[in-house]
Design brief:
Elements: H1 24-31, H2 35-49, E1 54-64, H3 93-105, E2 110-115, H4 122-137, E3 141-145, H5 151-160, E4 164-166, H6 173-179, H7 185-197, E5 201-203, E6 206-208, H8 214-225, E7 233-238, H9 255-268, E8 273-276, H10 285-293, E9 298-300, H11 313-323, E10 326-327
Parallel strand pairs: 1-2, 1-9, 1-10, 2-3, 3-4, 4-5, 6-7, 7-8, 8-9
Helix pairs in contact: 1-8, 2-9, 3-4, 4-5, 8-9, 9-10
The protein binds S-adenosylmethionine, 6-(5-methyl-2-OXO-imidazolidin-4-yl)-hexanoic acid and iron/sulfur cluster.
Length: about 325
């Protein structure tokens, strides 16, 4: 059997391009480390930057469901697919506040409002601004995910006090066109840059299990980790295979590869919140525990994601108790 010296975590990896913190090849090499070495490095980075037992809890609400004009191959809300999601008009502010209050009462610290839009209209934005202000008024952190944003809409959200804007890169640039044809990677990068310039926190991550290879997983992480600064929040979703979407029969990824994705996100973005996102309902507690060990320190909390299920609150509380974990507050 081969013996190997354990390589310790290097805070500043050497790359040839000074603007690039991590090359795709370096990230791919992380994916290929022996599992125990990868986990050890991820735990080191995690413990240098966070209380390893505190988890940030975000609750999602779909404020406008279905009928989306984009053709994202994974998404049950696309008008191009027949996933049986009922199209609904935008919720009113009172319904959103009621859901946010319930999320706060059950222990969530952040409330994330999601809309099935390619981009919001000026009229949509008037309601969203009211929602953001009202949810902030409850003392919760706010997040919104509304699709692409133009400068005026970014300014409106920033003025309303939105804390985070979620806009996922989803996958590597060279695989994007296989999954989505109605927009370009650059469209996503442009919105993220506008959000960053306006001073809001950026939440951006992706999905694994779309049929991407390891180099493409590394390609997604490189895009995120080389942003300057990198996102404050990085959701890693495991594809929820919804019948009627083009990816309904995608092959399951090995759970250990999902854990590796979390660990690589943690090592390359030491101070970000890595969120264990969609797909937890299909994941055993053991795999989730390994994700926390790999550096995940945030999760979606509440029995619903946008249109699909999430473990219920009682089950999640029991899991966190079992692991000796607790919700993140400003104290840790
Ligand atoms: N329409 C906006 C957009 O796409 O930016 C916001 C809502 S969209 C549903 C937010 C994110 O949900 C997507 O970027 C994708 O990462 C994730 N998502 C959608 N369907 C999913 C699925 N079936 N499994 C896992 N993640 C999914
Ligand atoms: C993110 O990265 N995942 C969330 C949130 N950001 C908006 C959405 C997951 C959606 C899963 C499929 C659904 O419930 O419709
Ligand atoms: Fe629309 Fe967002 Fe779904 Fe794509 S992921 S179809 S943009 S709701």
């Amino acid at each position: 059997m081969q013996t190997q010296t354990v390589k310790l975590y290097r805070p500043a990896p050497a790359t040839t391009d000074k603007n690039e913190r991590w090359s795709v090849a370096e990230i791919e090499a992380l994916f290929k480390l022996p599992f125990n070495d990868l986990m050890f490095r991820a735990q080191q980075v995690h413990r240098e930057n966070f209380d390893p037992n505190a988890v940030q809890l975000s609750t999602l609400l779909s404020i406008k469901t279905g009928g989306c004009s984009e053709d994202c191959g994974y998404c049950p809300q696309s008008a191009f697919h027949s996933a049986g999601v009922e199209n609904r008009k935008m919720l009113d502010v009172a319904e959103v506040v009621k859901a946010a209050q319930a999320a706060k009462d059950s222990g969530a610290g952040r409330f994330c409002m999601g809309a099935a839009w390619r981009e919001p209209s000026d009229e949509d934005m008037e309601s969203v601004v009211e929602m953001v202000k009202a949810v902030r008024g409850l003392g919760m952190e706010t997040c919104a995910t509304l699709g692409m944003l133009k400068d005026e809409h970014v300014a409106q959200l920033s003025d309303a006090g939105l804390d985070y804007y979620n806009h996922n890169l989803d996958t590597a640039p060279d695989f994007y066109g296989d999954i989505i044809s109605t927009r370009d990677y650059q469209d996503r990068l442009d919105t993220l840059e506008r959000v960053r310039k306006a001073g809001m926190h950026v939440c951006s991550g992706g999905i694994v299990g779309l049929g991407e290879n390891i180099t493409q997983r590394a390609g997604l992480i490189a895009q995120l980790a080389n942003m300057n600064p990198y996102p404050e929040s990085v959701p890693i979703n495991n594809l929820v295979k919804v019948e009627g979407t083009p990816l309904q029969d995608a092959a399951d990824i090995d759970p250990l590869d999902f854990v590796r994705m979390i660990a690589v996100a943690r090592i390359t973005m030491p101070t970000t919140r890595v969120r264990l996102s969609a797909g937890r309902q299909q994941m055993s507690e053991v795999v989730q525990a390994m994700c926390f060990l790999a550096g995940a320190n945030s999760m979606f909390y509440g029995d619903q994601l946008l249109t699909t299920g999430n473990p219920d609150v009682a089950r999640d509380r029991a899991m966190l108790d079992k692991l000796g974990m607790y919700p993140f507050t400003e104290n840790h």
